[in-house]
Amino acid sequence: TIAGFFLFIVAISLGPVSLVSALGRVQLLFVFLAATVLSKFGILRERLEKKVLIRKIVYTAVIIIGAVLVI
Asked: What pTM was estimated for this model as a whole?
């Protein structure tokens, strides 16, 4: 969205690009958590089988570890 892009530009102007970019990747963790919670309540239709959840957790962890290594 336009607001998100604008705030991203403001964040880059206030801090190091690598830090801003890495923190932007952490949003995937929040999306994962929100999708899981909303699926538990039946609002979304995400698959919540054990195998799928483990795969999503591993993928999210790899992304976050990569973001931390950039910082």
From this structure: 0.57
